[in-house]
Design a protein that fits this description.
- The complex is a heterotrimer of chains A (368), B (271) and C (294).
- With 368 residues, chain A is α+β, with helices and mostly antiparallel strands.
- In chain A, 24% of the residues lie in helices and 33% in strands.
- Chain A has two domains: 236 residues, P-loop containing nucleotide triphosphate hydrolases (Rossmann fold, 3-Layer(aba) Sandwich), CATH 3.40.50.300; 81 residues, Nucleic acid-binding proteins (OB fold (Dihydrolipoamide Acetyltransferase, E2P)).
- Chain A has nine helices and 21 strands.
- In chain A, the strands form five sheets. In chain A, strands 6-7-8-3-9-10 form a six-stranded mixed beta sheet, sandwiched between helices.
- Chain A is globular and about 75 Å long.
- With 271 residues, chain B is mainly alpha-helical.
- In chain B, α5 packs across α7 and α7 packs across α9.
- The longest helix of chain B is centred in the N-terminal third of the chain and has 34 residues.
- By secondary structure, chain C is mostly helical.
- Chain C has a single domain, classed as Orthogonal Bundle (MetI-like fold).
- In chain C, 78% of the residues lie in helices and 0% in strands.
- The two termini of chain C are 43 Å apart.
- The chains are: A alpha+beta (368), B mainly alpha (271), C mainly alpha (294).
- Chains in contact: A-B, A-C, B-C.
- At the B-C interface, α1, α4, α5, α6 and α7 of B face α1, α2, α4, α5 and α6 of C.
Chain lengths: 368, 271, 294
């Protein structure tokens, strides 16, 4: 299904300067036909600029944007044939739900009968069947979101762009919509570019994530790879919780922490300084009931001695802050099931924190 | 609890303890409204001298007004000029407001200053300047000259009203319309205009009234068969107190009141 | 071609095209304003430096410095403008305060008392005052009836009548921005002040009044600047006895047909107006108060 209804996007050398600042700094990005790609970054990173450039609302200073084989960089927005969902939804309040959704069809001179049928279909798709006659101000936030979505795909665009479409919804609704959007994408098979600053949302929905920082792409990869193998400190820090510790590099390229060997420096490294990235949920404590079972015969874990600083209960999980030898602080996240013994830890307790070497993430220190 | 004992504001002061404020406000409101409305009863007086209350009532000043060729011609001129000014100033001001609101260009600021000069330059100076320039261009005593001058005065007002409307409007709607396949022009007419239409109507009424009530420029650049109502009224006021003016004033008050109520209604619809 | 310059010429060209098309929408309005206002006023500026013989001269400006009569015109203009502004503040402040304290529905109704005069031709209102204030007018009759004075007092064709008429016409220009400023004052502040034990009067003077000042200053400046160039009301209600810059310009043109002299007065009036606005803009951020943007 995706093949005929979707187009790949090839972005090349896309550059946009505001004064002396690069909002986009020679960005190269290939978005595959039919994939769900998320542009993820903090505010001001350039993610919205990039999306607006694809839509044609932001004119870059230089670069190329191709939809399939066609160069689009100079094409005005109304001829790009992309569906777009804005953060504010921007529904037309002087039209009914059906009129809103029929708007792009009318512009394309679709016959009245077909228009009616496609609007109904689109409404069914977003689970708003029968609400076509409603006025916009009679809709809830979630319903408006769905109308905006229906309006963006009803004319069968081959590319769908979304600018933080869920940010105005409350948490529960947002999480439900994330799943729905993912299903809708699978159903439509359209190439989708999604902007968000919410890393969990990006991890939930995307085929691939493009992490942006300061107008540059920091890493483009699948959610799993981005999480498990962040390319640099920015990605490691921005996605998921992490503790970043400096590693010691001896003359033979062996990296160690607190005297314990972690791994060898990658063979092709031009870099000497490395850091250890630790995900809190990958650490475990001697107090945890299942701790011994997680030891792996061939992989003795790193063992870090320390003192509990704080024990924080957060519902489904909890975490313990531990000051380890050398003064660094690490947090250890664990489930709060009845099996867990870590819940009883008090500040001042002496503990050992373990990390399997296979869970150790090593990244170059400093600039990324 | 009696109303005068109830708290009147956030500082718990009671209505009773600030009855003086209501008295003062009432007096001020009377002082504001009476001189605006007093012309109405006076216009129905039978007397040559403007007494109040009139001893006998009559329609003679209305007959005088409607029977006078001079007044009728001036009224037609004023209505003509007002309508034409409205038809020219409203699109001009709306276009300018859109350009300045949407454009992020450096030049926009400078253009804004040019566009509001008619509000900054004292009208007397605009009047004699236009009088002098029209002398060279042959536009004095012409409808065209009056419409041009009144358009210059009304355009900044239109611009301010429309800009305010843009501020409370989500311009992303135009972006959406364009992404869905509409040209910029189409997006404006189909999406934006229907939503700011009440402000546009308000601006149009305002520009009509600006022209219809304008005195100073009219005194200088209008005359002869193309003299405006206000020009004749002004010279009549300077020379002697003619009760016909009370009749004309009543009609003008009626027009302004209707327009004011219309704009109030439209602005409540806009929200 | 490097990546940083790919398509850059075409993009730059397109950007320029779009900007000019957009700004082009303002051109018709700018054309009219240039034709009717800016070029003619520039012309007057030029004329103010031309003598009767057609040569460059500073005589029109020298006269203003040398002749007492000119000095008096300016002094009088400032006097009338300042007095009108003060009257407007004294009357307008309680009025705006009253309106700002009302619930929205009532405020909208009573606001009509301010808006109705605002929308009525100033000629009509000037005429009404002429009738009200005349020797045998309602005001004199009323005052004599209740024994305020015994024989008719001259209330019109002098400074008194001019001030009354101008204040009435200018009042909405003060009340509207002041009302807007008062509406923006955070009600929690007054409540907090009351809860902390301040008396209503103290709360008003120490919190409300200072916060309403920017609106009052903005309104006063509009009134003052409009007064400086005012013509109709002084001409009619002043009866030739209240000479202001605008009436002087007209009489120079009517009686002497001296464009140089009239223009030079106009130029000084314009400069005074612009100076007041610039100083106000610098000191009080007038455009923020007027147009409500940062």
């Amino acid at each position: 299904m995706p093949t005929d209804s979707a187009l790949p996007i090839y972005i090349n050398g896309l550059t946009k300067k505001y004064g002396e600042l690069f909002a986009l700094d020679a960005v190269d990005l290939n978005i595959r036909s039919g994939e769900f790609l998320t542009l993820l970054g903090p505010s001001g990173s350039g993610k919205t600029t990039l999306l607006m450039a694809i839509a044609g609302f932001n004119r870059p200073d230089a670069g190329s944007i191709q939809f399939g084989d066609t160069e689009m960089i100079l094409t005005p927005p109304h001829k790009r044939d992309v569906g777009m969902v804005f953060q504010s939804y921007a529904l037309f309040p002087h039209m009914t739900v059906a009129q809103n959704i029929a708007f792009p069809l009318k512009l394309r001179k679709v016959t009245e009968a077909e228009r009616h049928q496609r609007v109904e279909e689109a409404l069914e798709t977003v689970q708003l069947g029968g609400l076509g006659h409603r006025h916009i101000d009679q809709l809830s936030g979630g319903q408006r979101q769905r109308v905006a979505l229906a309006r963006a795909f009803v004319f069968k665009p081959r590319i769908l762009l979304m600018d933080e479409p869920l940010s105005a919804l409350d948490k529960k609704l947002r999480e439900r919509m994330q799943i729905e959007l993912k299903q809708l994408h699978r159903q439509l098979g359209v190439t989708t570019v999604y902007v968000t600053h919410d890393q969990r949302e990006a991890l939930t929905m995307s085929d691939r994530i493009a992490v942006i920082s300061d107008g540059k792409l920091a890493q483009v990869d699948t959610p799993q790879t981005i999480y498990n193998h962040p390319a640099n400190g920015f990605v490691a820090d921005f996605i998921g919780e992490s503790t970043i510790l400096p590693l010691n590099n001896d003359s033979s390229g062996q990296l160690s922490f607190n005297g314990q060997h972690v791994q060898s420096q990658p063979a092709d490294a031009t870099h000497r300084d490395w850091s250890l990235v630790i995900r809190p949920e990958r650490l475990y404590l001697s107090e945890m009931s299942d701790a011994p079972g997680r030891h792996n015969a061939t992989d003795t874990p790193l063992a870090l001695d320390g003192i509990v600083k704080e024990n924080v209960f957060q519902g489904e999980t909890a975490f313990v802050l531990v000051t380890i030898d050398g003064g660094h602080e690490v947090s250890v996240r664990f489930g709060t099931g009845s099996m867990s013994q870590a819940g009883h830890l008090q500040p001042g307790d002496v503990v050992t924190v373990y990390l399997n070497r296979s869970d150790a993430i090593v990244i170059p220190t400093g600039d990324h | 609890m009696a109303w005068w004992n109830k708290p009147a504001s956030d500082t718990q002061i009671t209505h009773g303890s600030r009855i003086w404020l209501y008295v003062i406000a009432a007096i001020i409101m009377l002082l504001l409204v009476i001189p605006t409305l007093i012309v109405i009863p006076m216009s129905f007086s039978d007397s040559q001298y403007l007494e109040f209350p009139p001893e006998t009532w009559s329609m003679r000043w209305y007959e005088e007004y409607f029977g006078s060729k001079k007044w009728m011609r001036a009224t037609v001129t004023s209505l003509q000029v007002g309508t034409l000014t409205m038809l020219v100033a409203t699109p001009l001001g709306t276009m300018a407001a859109y350009a300045l609101f949407v454009s992020g260009h450096k030049a926009a600021r400078a253009l804004f200053v040019i566009l509001i000069t008619p509000m900054i330059v004292p009208v007397i100076l605009i009047a004699i300047g236009a009088f002098y320039a029209y002398g060279k261009l042959g536009l004095n005593n012409s409808i065209t000259g009056l419409v041009l001058a009144h358009t210059a005065l009304a355009t900044p007002l239109v611009m301010i009203v429309i800009t305010a409307a843009f501020r409370s409007y989500d311009l992303n709607q135009e972006l959406v319309a364009r992404s869905l396949g509409a040209t910029r022009l189409k997006a404006f007419f189909v999406i934006t205009l229907p939503q700011i239409k009440f402000s546009v109507i308000t601006a149009a009424l305002l520009s009509f009234l600006t022209s219809f009530d304008e005195v100073i420029v009219s005194i200088f650049v209008s005359g002869g068969t193309k003299a405006t109502l206000t020009k004749h009224m002004f010279s009549a006021l300077r020379d002697y107190i003619d009760p016909t003016i009370a009749a004309i004033s009543t009609i003008m008050v009626l027009i302004s009141t209707l327009l004011l109520l219309a704009t109030q209604w439209f602005s409540s619809r806009q929200k | 071609m490097t990546a940083r310059s790919l398509n850059s010429t075409a993009l730059k060209q397109q950007e320029r095209m779009e900007q000019w098309t957009l700004l082009g929408l303002a051109i018709p309005a700018i054309f009219v304003i240039l034709l009717v206002v800016i070029i003619p006023v520039g012309w007057l500026f030029y004329l103010s430096f031309i003598g009767d013989n057609g040569q460059f001269t500073l005589e029109h400006y020298q006269k203003m410095v040398e002749y007492k009569s000119y000095y008096r015109v300016f002094l009088n203009t400032f006097k009338v403008s300042i007095l009108t502004t003060l009257i407007c503040i004294v009357i307008g402040y309680p009025m705006a305060y009253f309106l700002a304290q009302l619930p929205a529905r009532w405020a909208g109704f009573f606001m009509l008392a301010v808006l109705l005069p605002f929308w009525t031709s100033l000629l009509v209102r000037t005429y009404a005052w002429l009738v009200l204030l005349q020797r045998k007018g309602i005001l004199n009759e009323f005052a004599m009836d209740i024994g305020l004075w015994e024989k008719p007092v001259k209330l019109v064709h002098n400074l008194t009548g001019t001030l009354i008429g101008m204040a009435h016409i200018m009042l909405p220009f003060l009340v509207l921005p002041l009302y807007n400023a008062m509406k923006k004052i955070d009600r929690d502040l007054m409540q907090a002040s009351a809860n902390l034990g301040a008396s209503p009067a103290k709360s008003f003077w120490q919190i409300y009044f200072p916060l309403s000042l920017p609106g009052m200053v903005a309104g006063s400046l509009i009134v003052f600047v409009l007064c400086l160039g005012f013509y109709v009301t002084p001409a009619v209600l002043g009866g030739g006895r209240v000479v202001m810059v605008a009436t002087q310009i007209t009489s120079i043109l009517e009686n002497q047909f001296n464009w140089g002299a009239a223009s030079s007065l106009g130029v000084v009036l314009l400069i005074a107006t612009v100076l007041v606005l610039i100083i106000a803009g610098r000191v009080f951020k007038l455009d923020t108060a007027l147009f409500g943007k940062g």
